């Protein structure tokens, strides 16, 4: 076979595997979400399908497919179908640029454990994520339902506002690595030089924005059950609803993977060099892929943990937090990082900036919050 | 001139709106919230006129749970009305029974003549039920704000109370335990000890809920300074219970009327103090409920002490001994009121002195009065605030519609 052909085959296999992993993780996220919720709420959770309810996602999928696929008579039929498809499509496309591992050699073929290594890597993620909001917006609008419309509007304004802060928080990372390519960003963090040590503030901004982008509590206003019943997916049933819910879990996993890539060294793990020397580059890279997925799953757990702990913001409070809280903070972060890079001490600047901010917040809190609960 | 008879095609029963598209401004829309909406706490339908996310007006539509209680009562003997009374505020049936039975006993001049043990048992079960009712209120309120976990924690501990009351009466929610002139049965053997075991458990739960819900920054943001009901407005709308006390007036019928054995028990009346916002906001109303649970626990402990000590179980004690065979009060108009978890529950009863059934029985339901404040409180608020306000008023539609 021609070398380009084998490379093509290898890439096709990677894409298939990443696709399968993403879908599998998303399916089992629903199960773990319910189990974690049950654990936190002193319940048992799903335990009927298979041992410990391990087949629950399959049962759910069967249920979703068997349900009546209802399209309201007053809905715009094509857009109504397009909404969930677009959500699912964009959710799945994001994983293409995430570097799951370093270079491996399998059966004489050498390739990277990454779908595509493009030089605009992180911009690809942002571009696709911002397309994702169209799925929700179109679904909400096409339903021709007031609740769905309100949900769609909320989704649109929320995602657009939080993308700004998210993008600004990334800029500091880009200032370090000097490249948009996800692969380069990860390579710059090898041997424990994870960005989280340089960018604690950037990470906090990013994770808050990720919550908003994934429409998860405390920012789950587009599907806010208590006011809008189901929000944008009020009128959806069957697998169309399943697509929306599934897309949410895929987004969670992908944003976990992006966070791991940008801030937690991607596929890097303690003792990477040691393993590479003992076992060879290829096993070390595969363990690295496992490490990345493990980090992503940890963030998925954080998403769930927060969801079952915190109440939900109000619409205007959410916008306030985005525009008057996170965006100035991320600009501050860019400034601090710039000073750090100029002075040649990025880690000191990062930590000093973080400590200053915390002090400022404490002083602000002491000055403004006069009343305390007895 | 022929009489105008509206034909069935001229109005549709499902759409009795006050507002129509013609009398709205172009940026406003009508949202029908309920009766199947998840956060209207039952079958309340709110016709909301909203300008985007801002509520312009709210019109409550009632009657989805109307069961003709008052008309039913006019054809039933007094003791047979008790099961129907259970179904008024179905989350606090014991309290409803207690109020009604006190009224009938007042008409029969049995007031204060019952054995003290009966009175203490009544107060004990009523306070247990008060905690159960408040737990539902606090839990669902957390859920309205978006916190799902505290709801299930509170439902879990409410379950213990319901098990106890099931042991007592055989029913989980609609007990029919308090009878005119007595009780269904004495407490089961070991009931007092089980209640004493439950008290520390509930105390822990209340502490947990305080940290998880009440002191949560997002919860405070969502409820402080929202739906501020000032004291004069609360009084003029006839609000009672935690809604009125949340507005800062320590008005508790257990103190004001001092009925049953409440004067012998020690407890304080918590009021809203505006700890995180303005006096009378949603947070205050919720906080009053949490504090009342603690007070109720204190009352329960005192009752247990009395029931195990001064008025303990004796073989001679027969809870049905004083139950009258025939209840035929003299002709009179009587109004009785008692402090329910949600506010003042009152019964007006008119008898003619010749029959065993009331001529008229009118219920003064606290939830109905609280619902009437809702439009005033929620005009100009956000849609999410509307949900927060409805939840803080703690409406039970069984009592509103009767």
Secondary structure elements and pairings:
The complex is a heterodimer of chains A (374) and B (402).
Chain A (H helix, E strand, L loop, with lengths): L2 H38 L15 H11 L10 H17 L5 E8 L2 E6 L6 H22 L3 H32 L4 H6 L7 H4 L1 H14 L11 H4 L9 H26 L8 H8 L1 H27 L7 H29 L2 H23 L6
Antiparallel strand pairs in A: 1-2
Helix pairs in contact in A: 1-10, 1-12, 2-10, 3-4, 3-10, 4-5, 5-8, 5-13, 8-10, 8-13, 10-12, 11-12, 13-14
Chain B lengths: L28 E5 L11 E7 L2 E8 L7 H5 L4 H9 L6 H15 L8 H30 L3 H21 L8 E2 L2 E2 L7 H24 L2 H7 L7 H6 L4 H6 L6 H4 L25 H27 L23 E9 L2 E9 L8 E5 L1 H13 L4 H11 L3 H5 L1
GO molecular function, one term (chain B): quinone binding
Protein name (chain B): NADH-quinone oxidoreductase subunit D
Enzyme class (chain B): translocase
Give an overview in words.
- By secondary structure, chain A is mainly alpha-helical.
- Chain A has one domain (3-373).
- In chain A, 70% of the residues lie in helices and 4% in strands.
- Chain A contains 14 helices and 2 strands; from the N terminus they run αααββααααααααααα.
- Chain A has a two-stranded antiparallel sheet with strand order 1-2.
- In chain A, helix 2 packs across helix 10, helix 3 (77-93) runs antiparallel to helix 4 and helix 13 runs antiparallel to helix 14 (346-368).
- Chain B has 402 residues and is an alpha+beta fold.
- Chain B has 2 domains: 2-61, no CATH class; 80-326, Orthogonal Bundle (Cytochrome-c3 Hydrogenase, chain B).
- Chain B contains 14 helices and 8 strands.
- Chain B has a 3-stranded antiparallel β-sheet with strand order 1-2-3. A 3-stranded antiparallel β-sheet of chain B has the order 6-7-8.
- In chain B, helix 5 (149-169) runs antiparallel to helix 6 (191-214).
- The two termini of chain B are 40 Å apart.
- The interface between A and B is medium-sized, with 30 and 35 residues.
- Chain A: It catalyses: a quinone + NADH + 5 H(+)(in) = a quinol + NAD(+) + 4 H(+)(out).
Question: In summary, what is this structure?
Answer:
The complex is a heterodimer of chains A (374) and B (402). Chain A is mainly α and 374 residues long.
């Amino acid at each position: 076979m021609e070398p380009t052909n084998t490379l093509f085959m290898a890439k096709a296999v990677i894409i298939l595997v990443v696709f399968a992993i993403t879908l599998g993780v998303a399916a089992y996220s629903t199960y773990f979400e319910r189990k974690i919720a049950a654990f936190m709420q002193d319940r048992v959770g799903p335990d009927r399908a298979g041992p410990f309810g391990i087949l629950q996602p399959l049962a759910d999928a069967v249920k979703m497919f068997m349900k009546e696929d209802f399209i309201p008579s007053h809905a715009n039929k094509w857009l109504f179908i397009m909404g969930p498809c677009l959500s699912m499509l964009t959710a799945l496309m994001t994983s293409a640029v995430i570097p799951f591992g370093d270079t491996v050699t399998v059966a004489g073929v050498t390739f990277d454990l990454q779908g595509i290594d493009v030089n605009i890597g992180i911009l690809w993620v942002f571009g696709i994520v911002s397309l994702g909001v169209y799925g929700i917006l179109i679904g909400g609008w096409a339903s021709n339902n007031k609740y769905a419309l309100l949900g769609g509007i909320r989704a649109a304004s929320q995602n657009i506002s939080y993308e700004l802060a998210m993008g600004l928080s990334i800029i500091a990372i880009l200032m370090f690595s000097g490249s948009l390519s996800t692969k380069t960003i990860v390579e710059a963090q090898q041997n424990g030089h994870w960005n989280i040590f340089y960018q604690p503030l950037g990470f906090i901004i990013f994770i808050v924005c990720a919550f908003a982008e994934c429409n998860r509590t405390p920012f789950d206003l587009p599907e806010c059950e208590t006011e809008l019943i189901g929000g944008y997916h009020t009128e959806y049933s069957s697998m169309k609803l399943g697509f929306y819910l599934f897309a949410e879990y895929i987004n969670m996993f992908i944003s976990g993977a992006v966070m791991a890539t940008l801030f937690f060294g991607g596929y890097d793990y303690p003792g990477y060099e040691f393993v590479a020397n003992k076992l060879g580059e290829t096993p070390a890279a595969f363990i690295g892929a496992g490490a990345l997925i493990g980090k992503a799953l940890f963030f998925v757990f954080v998403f769930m943990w927060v969801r079952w702990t915190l109440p939900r913001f109000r619409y205007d409070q959410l916008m306030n937090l985005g525009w008057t809280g996170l965006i100035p903070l991320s600009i501050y972060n860019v400034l601090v990082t710039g000073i750090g890079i100029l002075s040649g001490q990025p880690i000191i600047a990062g930590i000093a900036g973080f400590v200053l901010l915390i002090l400022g917040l404490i002083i602000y809190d002491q000055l403004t919050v006069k009343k305390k609960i007895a | 001139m022929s009489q105008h008879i509206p034909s069935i095609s001229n109005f549709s029963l499902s759409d009795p709106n006050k507002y129509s598209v013609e009398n709205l401004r172009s940026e406003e829309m009508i949202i029908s919230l309920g009766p199947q909406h998840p956060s209207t706490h039952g079958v309340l339908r709110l016709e909301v006129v909203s300008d985007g996310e801002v509520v312009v007006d709210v019109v409550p539509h009632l009657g989805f749970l109307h069961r003709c209680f008052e008309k039913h009562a006019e054809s039933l003997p007094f003791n047979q009305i008790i099961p129907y009374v259970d179904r008024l505020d179905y989350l606090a049936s014991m309290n409803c029974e207690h109020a009604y039975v006190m009224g009938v006993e007042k008409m029969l001049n049995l007031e204060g003549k019952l054995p003290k043990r009966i009175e203490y048992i009544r107060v004990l079960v009523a306070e247990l039920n008060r905690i159960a009712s408040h737990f539902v209120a606090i839990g669902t309120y957390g859920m309205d704000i978006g916190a799902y976990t505290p709801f299930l924690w509170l439902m879990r501990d409410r379950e213990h109370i319901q098990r106890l009351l099931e042991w007592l009466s055989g029913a989980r929610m609609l007990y029919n335990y308090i009878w005119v002139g007595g009780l269904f049965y004495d407490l089961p053997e070991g009931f007092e000890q089980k209640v004493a075991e439950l008290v520390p458990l509930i105390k822990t739960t209340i502490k947990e809920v305080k940290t998880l819900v009440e002191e949560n920054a997002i919860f405070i943001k969502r409820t402080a300074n929202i739906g501020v009901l000032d004291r004069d407005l609360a009084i003029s709308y006839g609000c009672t219970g935690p809604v009125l006390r949340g507005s800062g007036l320590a008005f508790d019928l257990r103190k004001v009327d001092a009925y049953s054995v409440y004067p012998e028990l020690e407890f304080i009346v918590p009021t809203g103090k505006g700890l995180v916002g303005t006096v009378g906001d949603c947070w205050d109303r919720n906080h009053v409920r949490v504090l009342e649970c603690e007070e109720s626990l204190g009352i329960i402990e005192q009752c247990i002490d009395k029931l195990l000590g001064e008025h303990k179980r004796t073989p001679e004690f027969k809870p049905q001994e004083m139950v009258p065979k025939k209840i035929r009060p003299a002709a009179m108009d009587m109004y009785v009121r008692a402090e329910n978890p949600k506010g003042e529950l009152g019964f007006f009863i008119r008898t003619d002195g010749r029959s065993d059934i009331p001529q008229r029985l009118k219920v003064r339901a606290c939830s109905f009065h609280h619902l009437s404040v809702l439009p005033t409180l929620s005009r100009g608020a956000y849609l999410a605030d509307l949900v927060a306000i409805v939840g803080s008023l703690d409406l039970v539609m069984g009592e509103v519609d009767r």
